């Protein structure tokens, strides 16, 4: 084969070395426009997992890298005059320049032809002359741009400015410095890369960057290789306490806004994208070098294993794309955390340190407990005392999910909520035995609070013929039967979610066709504006008059009064998912020109009027919550910032909890699904407004629940599908954590089953008698000590 590599960075060089080693007869050319000894940046950092792959792929390269490594395990968070340390993380870093030298020498030894200070020939010419063209030419890839119509690139510029610097101060661990400057909060990401220096990345939100005057310094063209010396001088001044007598080192250092690169396709004919040309992930969770070298390894292996280039490139992309997308999701969570850093600076140091450690959702409560149990014990102790100061619990340390929560006169025994889930099993709005067993069983299963499905305020306010209501005395009595069971047989509380379907009503049962109109027996639907959910499929709703609004407001108020009679402990107003009140809030569904349309405040007017009217009849010692869609996941729809304003408006009206969901407002939505994907919206609302929040959406493990609570991202966690899979989810979560205290009480008849049953016999090797024990128990708190490893 003849292989052309465009770009002589670590990814391109490593691929060339591996491919040449696997197939010595191939002809491989690498073009790099810079000189061999040019390098930008300072250190690169690797995980143990990546290093394991490098070691097995080319031991020669690995051994040379290993001799250069600065190794350590600790992360230090410097915040509010305290240093909080978490150990057991396992880092290895080295100079980027030394890495390039090692890879260049290895390529030369293997016979790879290296062309420095040379622009690569035209990519189409390369594609014609070579069997394979590897585009490893970075974030600003010329190859990708040339065939953008095929690759389908998306380049998203983010909201923080950062500058890549170095320092001759040798850090002994990974360092986060969070500094409150006169211009706002700035942060340093720092780590050692050898015995002489450290990487020193300064980052801040754009508004802080502008207030500090950096924009004026950066508002000019820099020659290639030049650094922004004026900005560097101010950075040195602002971080004088961090640097001491150490110097800042510049290398083409200037302000950058991180660009997240994604591509719909990575291959075009015999051209393949690799590293930053294909994808980027924010530096706060690792390095682009790490991802590029992992790409290189996978591509070289695929070429070796597959019979031809076409199948090799398909196998490479199929293997790497899910890994990269997972990394990018974690990186997105991390970069957004730093973009919103200002919303956390009120947190106490221990909680802040836990928050920063778990920001990407890859490192979690359980994961940290394995790495550094002492750190997690400290956080657990802090949380127990903190919640006691807030009037929750007695200060006893327990898993965070089992700390109680008091809201008005209601005390929940733990922080787990069975999320509202439509069951579609009612007849004429009447809940029956199914609902008794469904909700009663979930209450027996250990959750602190069990929520009903959306209970509708009128027959025409139902979503489907199978939806429940609370608009008749018979329905009220049926609900009372359920709440009596929950209160008599369990220690759970039960809440009711009240809503009106709006334009999404008069549709089939979920398993008959979700959001599909009824073929017969349908009823007319209403909305703030005559816009069907799906034009040509769903009904065109009748636009509500002001008189109609008064009637519907009274229906909600009557439903709240019946909910009192039915014995519910908490009332939630459904203002999400494109149902009636939600469709008033979203600009995609509310085109009114009267006082109920226009600005966000005006669009909120009717939902707030409904809430106020319900609050008047709902007992003052019982809490009310509101469910909102914190984003429409659509252009020109509700945004995360709008959600903060919406939550603040309901908080001003007297809401106690905001149940933060997203989407389901417009059929063209493009949600960013993933584990706990809606939690950042609850996090933002809680930490910007101070109102208590409930997180929902792909939360399925007790590890996630504990992580969310400890980091201060929400006060309660709602789980839906996890409870459908396991109605005793909360009790089993207690058993898995070996917790038997308050908040995890098994019903007396079930206590014999409170321990996990044996699943079968295992015949493993018998443990030998150790005559000598090596090492000491406890966390690895290795620091980087040059000369001592």
UniProtKB/TrEMBL annotation:
Sequence ranges of Basic residues compositional bias: 780-789
Residue ranges annotated for the FAD-binding domain, each copy included: 111-328
Region of interest called Disordered, as start-end residue ranges on this chain: 744-789
Extent of Basic and acidic residues compositional bias: 763-776
Pfam family, one: Oxidored_FMN
Domain of life: Bacteria
Record domain NADH:flavin oxidoreductase/NADH oxidase N-terminal: where: 401-734
NCBIfam families: PRK08255.1
PANTHER family noted in UniProt: BLR3436 PROTEIN, NADPH DEHYDROGENASE C23G7.10C-RELATED
UniProt name for this protein: Bifunctional salicylyl-CoA 5-hydroxylase/oxidoreductase
Source organism (scientific name): Amycolatopsis tucumanensis
């Amino acid at each position: 084969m003849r292989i052309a590599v465009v770009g002589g960075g670590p990814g391109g060089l490593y691929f060339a070395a591996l491919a040449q080693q696997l197939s010595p007869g191939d002809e491989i050319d690498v073009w790099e426009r810079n000189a061999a000894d040019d390098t930008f940046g300072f250190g690169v950092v690797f995980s143990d997992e990546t290093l394991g792959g490098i070691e097995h792929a080319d031991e020669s390269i690995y051994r040379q890298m290993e001799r250069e490594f600065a190794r350590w395990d600790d992360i230090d968070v410097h915040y509010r005059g305290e240093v909080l340390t978490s150990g057991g993380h396992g880092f290895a870093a080295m100079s980027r320049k030394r890495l390039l030298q090692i890879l260049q020498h290895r390529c030369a030894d293997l016979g790879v032809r290296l062309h420095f200070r040379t622009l690569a020939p035209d990519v189409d010419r390369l594609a014609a002359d070579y069997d394979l063209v590897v585009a490893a030419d970075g974030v600003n890839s010329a190859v990708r741009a040339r065939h953008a119509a095929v690759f389908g690139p998306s380049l998203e510029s983010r909201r923080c400015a950062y500058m890549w610097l170095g320092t001759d101060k040798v850090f002994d661990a990974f360092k986060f410095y969070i500094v409150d400057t006169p211009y706002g909060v700035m942060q340093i990401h720092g780590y050692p890369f050898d015995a002489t220096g450290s990487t020193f990345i300064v980052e801040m939100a754009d508004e802080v960057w502008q207030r500090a005057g950096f924009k004026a310094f950066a508002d000019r063209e820099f020659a290639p290789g030049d650094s922004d010396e004026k900005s560097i001088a101010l950075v040195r001044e602002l971080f004088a306490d961090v640097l001491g007598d150490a110097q800042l080192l510049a290398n083409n250092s200037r302000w950058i806004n991180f660009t997240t690169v994604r591509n719909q396709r990575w291959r075009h004919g015999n051209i393949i994208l690799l590293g930053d040309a294909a994808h980027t992930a924010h530096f706060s969770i690792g390095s682009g070098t790490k991802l590029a070298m992992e790409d290189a390894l996978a591509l070289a292996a695929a070429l070796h294993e597959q019979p031809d280039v076409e199948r090799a490139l398909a196998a490479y992309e199929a293997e790497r794309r899910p890994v990269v997308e997972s990394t990018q999701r974690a990186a997105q969570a991390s970069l957004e955390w730093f973009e919103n850093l200002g919303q956390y600076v009120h947190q106490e140091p221990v909680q802040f340190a836990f928050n920063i450690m778990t920001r990407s959702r890859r490192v979690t409560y359980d994961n940290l407990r394995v790495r550094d149990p002492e750190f997690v014990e400290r956080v657990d102790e802090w949380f127990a005392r903190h919640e006691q100061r807030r009037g929750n619990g007695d200060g006893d340390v327990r898993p965070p999910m089992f700390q109680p929560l008091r809201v008005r006169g209601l005390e929940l025994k733990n922080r787990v909520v069975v999320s509202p889930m439509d069951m579609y099993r009612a007849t004429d709005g009447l809940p029956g035995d199914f609902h008794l067993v469904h909700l009663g069983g979930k209450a027996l299963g250990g959750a602190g609070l069990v929520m009903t499905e959306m209970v509708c305020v009128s027959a025409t306010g139902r979503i489907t013929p199978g939806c429940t209501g609370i608009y008749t005395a018979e329905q009220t009595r049926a609900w009372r039967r359920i709440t009596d069971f929950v209160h008599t047989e369990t220690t759970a509380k039960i809440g009711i979610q009240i809503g009106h379907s709006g334009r999404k009503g008069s549709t089939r049962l979920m398993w008959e066709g979700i959001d599909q109109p009824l073929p017969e027996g349908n009823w007319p639907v209403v909305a703030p504006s005559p816009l069907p959910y799906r034009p040509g499929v769903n009904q065109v709703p009748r636009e509500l008059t002001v008189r109609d609004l008064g009637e519907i407001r009274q229906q909600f108020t009557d439903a709240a009064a019946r909910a009192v009679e039915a014995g519910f402990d908490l009332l939630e107003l459904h203002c999400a998912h494109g149902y009636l009140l939600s469709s008033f809030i979203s600009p995609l569904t509310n085109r009114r020109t009267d006082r109920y349309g226009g600005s966000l405040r005006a669009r909120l007017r009717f939902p707030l009027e409904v809430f106020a009217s319900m609050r008047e009849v709902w007992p003052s010692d019982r809490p009310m919550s509101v469910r909102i869609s914190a984003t429409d996941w659509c252009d020109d729809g509700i945004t995360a910032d709008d959600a903060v304003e919406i939550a603040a408006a309901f908080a001003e009206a007297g809401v106690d909890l905001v149940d933060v969901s997203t989407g389901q407002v417009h059929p063209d939505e493009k949600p960013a699904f993933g584990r706990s994907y809606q939690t950042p919206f609850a996090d933002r609302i809680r930490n910007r407004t101070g109102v208590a929040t409930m997180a929902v959406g792909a939360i399925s493990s007790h590890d996630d629940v504990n992580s969310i609570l400890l980091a201060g991202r929400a006060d309660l966690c709602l789980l839906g599908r996890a409870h459908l899979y396991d109605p005793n989810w909360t009790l089993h979560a207690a058993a898995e954590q070996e917790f038997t205290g308050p908040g995890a009480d098994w019903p007396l008849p079930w206590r014999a089953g409170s321990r996990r049953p044996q699943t079968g016999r295992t015949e493993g090797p018998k443990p030998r008698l150790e005559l000598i024990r090596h090492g000491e128990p406890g966390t690895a708190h290795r620091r980087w000590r040059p000369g001592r490893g």
